[in-house]
Specification:
Shape: globular
Order of helices and strands: EHEHEHEHEHEHHHE
Number of helices: 8
Distance between the termini: 45 Å
Radius of gyration: 18 Å
CATH superfamily of the largest domain: NAD(P)-binding Rossmann-like Domain
CATH class of the largest domain: Alpha Beta
Structural class: alpha/beta
Strand content: 5-15%
Number of strands: 7
Length: 249
């Protein structure tokens, strides 16, 4: 029987590559997202795969899908790849943007963690939860307070969740990519460029040169690490934050 994995945020730029990598590894993938899940599912190799419309900010919907007896309960692994970003100084914080980022990046993860905890308590088993954090969750920088706070919080949440679900035979880890070549990073670069009076390409070049790699991280490189943690060969790892990035300059 193939390993069943739920990818929350599976229609996003990183999520859809994660789905593809998991499917290529022979896993049965349930693509869960607010929109676009069906389109991703139909493009996956192998199977059987499934899709699910899911709003991570709706706790009742998350528990109904992932909790005991839920439509996607009983899986062997889950990847939380849902996320939102915002940039700006603390002094001019956009509170609507703050709420959006926190609701998706952190509160949504709590909703999923609660549903998983309930399902695992009802049906203990070997299980792996992987949450997509960021190197912004390990060190802060100017203009990133909201995003960084959400990702710092996510790492703390994962460490706590890992300790709680270990008794069920389950584990939880965070993956912390650096600057990933993605639409989200380009949007961020555009926003930073406007704030600085610079060009988007200049900001992207700066991002790429932030480590000794002198390049951006490819989405596939992140997805490969997530797939390893979601699989059965990483059973000795839990409560960890795995960095996918180059060495510092």
């Amino acid at each position: 029987m193939s390993r069943a994995v739920v990818v929350v945020g599976g229609a996003g730029a990183i999520g859809r590559v994660v789905c593809a990598v998991l499917a290529e590894a022979g896993m049965a993938v349930t693509v869960a997202d607010l929109r676009g899940a069906d389109e991703v599912r139909t493009g996956l190799p192998g199977g059987p795969h499934a899709s699910l419309s899911l709003d991570v900010t709706d706790r009742d919907a998350v528990v109904a899908a992932l909790g005991p007896g839920g439509t996607a309960a009983g899986a062997s692994a889950l990847v939380y790849a849902a996320g939102s970003n915002y940039t700006g100084p603390v002094s001019t914080t956009d509170w609507d943007a703050y709420d959006r980022v926190m609701n998706i990046n952190l509160r949504g993860a709590f909703h999923v963690g609660q549903a998983l905890s309930l399902d695992l308590a009802a049906s203990p088993r070997e299980f792996s939860a992987v949450f997509l954090s960021s190197t912004a969750g390990l060190r802060g920088e100017s203009g990133a307070s909201v995003y960084a706070a959400s990702k710092f919080g996510l790492i703390g949440f994962v460490e706590c969740l890992a300790a709680e679900i270990a008794t069920f035979g389950a584990r939880a880890n965070a993956v912390c990519p650096g600057n990933v070549d993605s639409p989200m990073l380009r949007t961020l670069a555009e926003q930073v460029a406007v704030r600085r009076g610079d060009t988007t390409e200049a900001v992207l070049t700066e991002f790429a040169g932030a480590t000794s790699f002198d390049r951006l991280i490819a989405i596939r490189e992140v997805a490969d690490v997530i797939a390893y943690l979601a699989g059965p060969r990483s059973t000795g790892m839990s409560g960890q934050s795995v960095v996918v990035d180059g060495p510092p300059l």
